[in-house]
Amino acid sequence: MIDHLTRGRAPSSRSHQRRLLVAALALVGLARAVTAGAALPVAHAALPPARHTTTRAHGAPAPVSATPPALPARHAAGRSPHFIRPPHARAPRRGPLRVPLPADLGRWGFLPAVPGHSPQARSWLLLTVPRGYTVRTAALLLNDTARPLPLHLFLADGHSGPDGAFRSTNLGEPVHGVGAWLRLDGPARVVVPPHHAMRLPLTLTVPRDAPVGLHAGALEARGAATAAGTANGVHLSIATQVGLRVYLTVPGRAVVAPVWSGLRCTHTEGRVLCHVTLLNRGTVPLHPQGHLRLLTPWGATAARLPLGDVGELLPADSLDLTATWAHPTLGLYHVEAALSAAGHRATQATAVAVGPPWWTWLPLLPLALLVRAAWRGRRHLRSRLRAAAHAWRTAPTPPPLAP
After folding, report:
1. pLDDT by residue, tens only, the chain of 403 residues
2. 112: how many CB neighbours lie within 10 A of its CB?
3. Cβ neighbours around 399 below 10 Å, total
4. ∠115-155-218 over CA atoms, to 5°?
């Protein structure tokens, strides 16, 4: 996808023949880009994209590549380029829609300006950029409604939610990853005419100290809020928001480092709830799996519980996996957890006691009070008897009677 590189500083003067050769090679590359751009709108119609909001789950991107992308020959001899410019379809900044939108995109939404060949690359922006590089890309904002569409554009960081689904930061929340490295080369508030497409140029600058691995972000568009009524004296309004996921891979060594911790089980409301925490300290997304076994004191398996199915866990994120034993029996159990993620296996253990509900002890309350009263009465009686015996032993001996 990246085919043109230029250095950050101006090159030194060369011979006239070398300049002509470089110009000829540039013209050939430009002709190829124009030819590729002219064929993109036809393929664009057959690519079903995936629409997402900040609360909808999606699939996972490709894993991190262990080798950086190959550079052209003129940069292989120790010359590190500082700017990368990928080719783009020559879509107009504003123009009528040539093809209808896919059904799952709705009446308006995002598409990559240059969709890739994989199903994920057709719906999201998948970029591979080394540290210290800058890449220019673009997205298409499409409006297939019959009225102009005013939108507020903003950039967000992506992360894994509690259930493993993709989440993005909301408008106004601080961003530190892809949302901070991306820049929208245009106004933040736009109005897309009806049945038109707008091209949104983006610039992504990867810091030199960016962690190796996969980073997630999103380009979000929020529509104008509309009144939805009043409930309990509170005025409600609804604002529709859609986005385009951006997955950035910083090339480097792929590291798989799942860290499991905090296995705990509690008995509450007639159920046994077990939780275990997974932290992804690697550079690739994880798809954790596992199950729990509850063993009786004599080693028999009382229950086998699968951990909750989650989507994916992005690098530097953590989530809790849960399992529930809905109808436990009374007793003391040893809990063993067999966990796995990306071929790495781990085991953890804990214990849990299952007793009867608290209300089953209510009939025994009067008996407990009677036993306590009898015990206190016995202690009081013993203390009085001890005091009497001590007084008798320490009493002075009376003088003998006179004859």
Report:
1. 333 333 344 444 456 777 777 777 777 666 665 444 333 332 333 333 333 333 333 334 444 443 334 433 333 333 333 444 443 434 445 556 554 555 556 688 888 887 765 666 677 889 999 999 999 999 989 888 889 999 999 999 998 887 778 889 988 899 999 999 999 999 999 999 988 889 999 999 999 999 999 999 999 999 887 777 777 777 787 888 889 999 999 998 888 889 988 898 988 888 889 989 889 988 888 888 888 898 988 888 888 988 877 778 888 888 888 888 888 888 889 999 888 888 888 888 888 888 666 666 677 778 888 888 888 888 888 888 888 887 887 877 777 766 6
2. 24
3. 6
4. 40
- Domain extent listing, the chain: 4-70+79-225+237-250, 258-354
Q: Cα-atom radius of gyration of the chain, to the nearest Å?
A: 35
Residue type, 73: A
Superfamily of domain 258-354: Immunoglobulins (2.60.40.10)
Distance CA 121, CA 138 (A): 13
Cα 142-147-153 angle, rounded to 5 deg: 45
Decide whether 4-70+79-225+237-250 matches 258-354 in CATH topology.
yes
**Token pair for residue 386?**
């001890």
Place of tokens 């990306």: 342
CA distance 204 to 183: 6
Fold classified for 4-70+79-225+237-250: Immunoglobulin-like (2.60.40)
> Residue 237's Cα: distance from chain center in Å?
27
Nearest CA among 308, 304, 319, 336 for reference residue 259: 319
